[in-house]
Specification:
Blueprint (H helix, E strand, L loop, with lengths): L6 E7 L5 E14 L4 E8 L5 E6 L6 E4 L3 E7 L2 E7 L2 H15 L13 H8 L18 H11 L3 H13 L2 H15 L2 H16 L3 H7 L5 H7 L12 H8 L11 H20 L12 H20 L1 H12 L5 H18 L4 H14 L1 H9 L4 H17 L1 H12 L8 H10 L7 H13 L13 H12 L1 H11 L24 H20 L2 H10 L1 H6 L7 H16 L3 H9 L4 H9 L6 H16 L2 H15 L7 H21 L14 H6 L33 H14 L6 E2 L5 E3 L5 H4 L29 E3 L18 H8 L11
Parallel strand pairs: 9-10
Antiparallel strand pairs: 1-2, 1-7, 2-3, 3-4, 5-6, 6-7, 8-9
Helix pairs in contact: 3-6, 5-6, 10-11, 13-16, 15-16, 15-18, 16-17, 16-19, 17-20, 18-19, 19-22, 21-22, 22-25, 25-28, 27-28, 28-30, 29-30
Family: Belongs to the SMEK family.
Protein name: Serine/threonine-protein phosphatase 4 regulatory subunit 3B isoform X1
Organism: Apteryx mantelli (North Island brown kiwi)
Length: about 800
């Protein structure tokens, strides 16, 4: 059983009034038939044997102590205690006991104790109300040490000892003995004093801490803790605290109480973190009061500083004053960093007030100035403060930068300052840049943006970011992949790199960070990033990095493309096929050769995704343009699978072409045989979703087929216009008196990049049509592709194919085509 909440130690009180440890196990409360009631059972964790079986008696007085102890008397002289590893487990069992006895779990004792019983429980540890402490003398130190260490296992005796130490002013007497021992170099006495003082700390009593950590006592307490018997030489903690550790006042603190609190907190934190050994699982609760002592001191310090607005205003004034020298500014920034770190101890509502106070005093404009400074230490501390602010409220930071954008140039905007710090990080490992990238990602994450009734932060901020900041973020990427470095007409399968990529490891790391952020944008920003990628032809520039000698950078570029393809957005797919953007990826795969590495696996996964998701336009493009280069790769079935999908789709389209729709079966409509021959080898690779979309009217045929809209808005307008045009899938009379047909598939849209394989045919009916049609001058404009002797249906219903095949067998319904 691994549930630590229910893990307990079982104690029984022996005849000498000492608590004996009966073992460690897991407690449960269940109904025991033999005892006829709800009982507490403890099974040993070693072998599962029963350590305790005790019926919860409705009249027994149970006591809860120190959040992790439950104590009760089973019989006249048989007292039991359960010591829990975790408070949650103690609370759970306490609730069960209270439930049986019909009590509120908030009580500390379940029954009003009758006098004799109260006396009995109170006097459990000893027959006398207090522990008798030996006189405080050198020759009694061993006896005192034994006493202190012996009570630690008994919660009640710990309470008694703490009370005795407090009442007799014993700690100050012990510390006087410490000075005597140190002067006499009495090592044995000093070792005993270490045990005594450490034991007193483990009593976990705030009243004793107040005495021990007072100005007059704390250094002697630290002194006692230097003499650990397990060390050959004593440590020099006092020397560190008095000589090495320097208290810096960036602006003089006039409040003596505040100053004393700061000193005390630092020293107590030092005792907890440095001097005392890391507590074991069962000792964790021993120092809970010490942790609380430090915690409440920090809260008090933050509150006192926060209330002193004069002090904070002065700090801000000096921080932003150009006359302040660098050392002073560094100290001011470090003070703020520590101040913000202390604020993490505050309750949420107090922390809220704290950051609002800082915002009101102008922390963000101050940070903007400080982050742009040359001093690395100052910039690093300013980044830490900025991270506290972003973590606390990304919206507050966003609101500030959007207001600032109305008054300032792009160069000095806070977010651009942050981006520039990221780009200019001098650390070879880019530690600072990684931290700043994380903060930027938080700021541009739509998940934490608010949408209120009157404004949407998401659209406002993203418009701002793409207009004012995106060009700064992508500048290093565009600079390192500029056109003059890139040969556009590289041969597929070339063994040499076509591009000059950044060899510098630091630049490569920076580009990888920028790409990580852009990949995040592709996933979360939809049309903003889509616009940006199209307008800047960003994917082409990113794929230049596939030739980098740094594999991690090539993988980042590939991951960027994989995210784009993962969206399965046909607009992106057309952009990729039109720009022939698979070429650098396939070159990288072929240049990688037979090496079985991460790059190889990532490229294959990209193509496998396209195959599994059956992205028709990309499958057609890959097979038609690159299959010859890829067919030799047989250690995976991906490329053969792509070819199979391609051929299946081709066959499916051919079958559709063979099923002739009824509206065209009248011999009134004829096709020119030449048009059929030209179209013989054609097929469609469009998605089902695009049916009825891509019509090219005759006036548009003069435009080059790869003239795609260069922005998302234009694309949407074109799409809407086409969709409205296609709503009626019936012949429309044109101004010339002919009929215009809108077909459900069009090769021209699907294969714009490959115009030799796809044509829109303007087929004209012969003036002398065989049925003597009256519309001699009518022009039938169709965007149609067909195999010889067949036409495309106006509307294809998936389950109509069988019907069509049946109809085809009837000679009466066969269409008559013009010869």
């Amino acid at each position: 059983m691994s549930d630590t909440r229910r893990r307990v130690k079982v104690y029984t009180l022996n005849e000498d009034r000492q608590w004996d440890d009966r073992g460690t196990g897991h407690v449960s409360s269940t109904y025991v038939e033999r005892l006829k009631g709800m009982s507490l059972l403890v099974r040993a964790e070693s072998d599962g044997s029963l350590l305790l079986e005790s019926k919860i008696n409705p009249n027994t007085a149970y006591q809860k102590q120190q959040d992790t102890l439950i104590v009760w008397s089973e019989a006249e002289n048989y007292d039991l205690a359960l010591s829990f590893q975790e408070k949650a487990g103690c609370d759970e069992i306490w609730e069960k006991i209270c439930q049986v006895q019909g009590k509120d779990p908030s009580v500390e004792v379940t029954q009003d104790l009758i006098e004799s019983e109260e006396e009995h429980i109170e006097e459990m540890p000893e027959t006398s109300p207090l522990i008798d402490l030996p006189t405080c003398e050198l020759n009694k130190l061993e006896e005192i040490a034994d006493l202190v260490t012996s009570v630690l296992s008994s919660p009640i005796r710990r309470e008694k000892l703490a009370l005795a130490l407090e009442n007799e002013g014993y700690i100050k007497k012990l510390l006087q003995l410490f000075q005597v021992c140190e002067n006499l170099e009495n090592t044995e006495g000093l070792h005993h004093l270490y045990e005594i003082i450490r034991g007193i700390l483990f009593l976990n009593k705030a009243t004793l801490f107040e005495v021990m950590f007072s100005d007059e006592c704390i250094m002697d307490v630290v002194g006692c803790l230097e003499y650990d018997p397990s060390l050959a030489q004593p440590k020099r903690h006092r020397e560190f605290l008095t000589k090495t550790a320097k208290f810096k006042e960036v602006i003089p603190i006039t409040d003596s109480e505040l100053r004393q609190k700061i000193h005390q907190t630092y020293r107590v934190q030092y005792i907890q973190d440095i001097i005392l050994p890391t507590p074991s699982v069962f000792e964790e609760n021993f120092l809970s009061t010490l942790t609380s002592f430090i915690f409440f001191n920090k809260v008090e310090i933050v509150s006192m500083l926060q209330e002193d607005e004069k002090f904070l205003s002065e700090v801000f004034a000096q921080l932003t004053d150009e006359a302040t020298d660098d050392d002073k500014r560094c100290e001011l920034v470090n003070f703020f960093k520590e101040f913000c770190a202390f604020s993490q101890t505050l309750q949420p509502q107090n922390r809220d007030a704290f950051f609002k106070t800082l915002a009101k005093l102008g922390i963000l404009p101050a940070l903007e100035i400080v982050m742009g400074m040359d001093d690395l230490q100052v910039r690093s501390a300013a980044t830490d403060i900025f991270s506290y602010l972003v973590e606390f409220s990304p919206s507050m930071v966003r609101e500030f930068v959007m207001q600032e954008a109305q008054q300032s140039d792009d160069d000095i905007l806070l977010i651009n300052v942050v981006i520039e710090q990221m780009i200019c990080d001098t650390d070879p490992e880019l530690g600072g840049a990684v931290q700043l990238m994380g903060l930027l990602r938080t700021l541009i994450d739509p998940e934490n943006m608010l949408a209120t009734a009157n404004k949407t932060e998401k659209s406002e901020f993203l418009n701002f970011f793409y207009n004012h900041c995106m060009h700064v973020l992508t500048a290093p990427l565009l600079a390192n992949t500029s056109e003059d470095k890139c040969e556009k007409d590289a041969v597929v399968g070339s063994t040499k790199s076509n591009t000059i990529c950044p060899d510098n490891y630091q630049t490569a790391q920076l580009l990888a960070l920028i790409l990580e952020l852009l990949t995040f944008c592709v996933e979360h920003h939809t049309y903003h990033i889509k616009n940006y990628i199209m307008n800047k032809d960003l994917l082409r520039r990113v794929l230049v990095l596939m030739n980098s000698k740094h594999t991690f950078l090539a993988l980042c570029a590939l991951r960027f493309m994989r995210r784009i393809i993962g969206l399965k957005d046909e607009f992106y797919n057309r952009y990729i096929t039109k720009g022939n953007l698979f070429e650098p990826v396939i070159n990288a795969l072929l240049d990688n050769g037979t090496r079985y590495n991460l790059l190889n696996s990532a490229v294959i996964e990209l193509f496998e995704f396209i195959r599994v998701e059956d992205i028709k336009s990309l499958i057609a493009h890959i097979v038609e343009n690159f299959y010859n280069a890829l067919e030799s790769i047989e250690y995976v079935q991906t490329f053969k699978g792509l070819k199979t999908k391609y051929e299946q789709e081709k066959d499916r389209q051919n079958q559709k072409l063979n099923s002739v729709p009824s509206i065209l079966r009248s011999n009134r409509f004829r096709r020119d045989a030449r048009a059929l021959e030209e179209d013989e080898e054609m097929w469609f690779n469009e998605d089902e979703e695009e049916e009825g979309e891509a019509v090219v009217p005759p006036v548009e045929k003069s435009k080059p087929e790869d003239d795609f809209p260069d922005s998302y808005e234009k694309f949407m307008e074109t799409k809407k216009a086409k969709e409205s045009e296609d709503k009626e899938n019936l012949p429309k009379r044109t101004s010339a008196g002919g009929f215009k047909f809108t077909f459900s598939h069009s090769a021209s849209a699907a294969n714009g990049a490959n115009s030799t394989n796809s044509k829109s045919v303007a087929a004209q009916t012969s003036p002398a049509s065989s049925n003597g049609s009256s519309s001699k001058n009518a022009t039938l404009t169709t965007a149609v592709t067909a195999t010889k002797g067949s036409l495309v249906g106006l509307v294809d219903y998936p389950d109509d194919e069988d019907d069509d095949e049946e109809e085809e067998t009837s000679p009466r319904k066969r269409p008559r085509l013009g010869s």
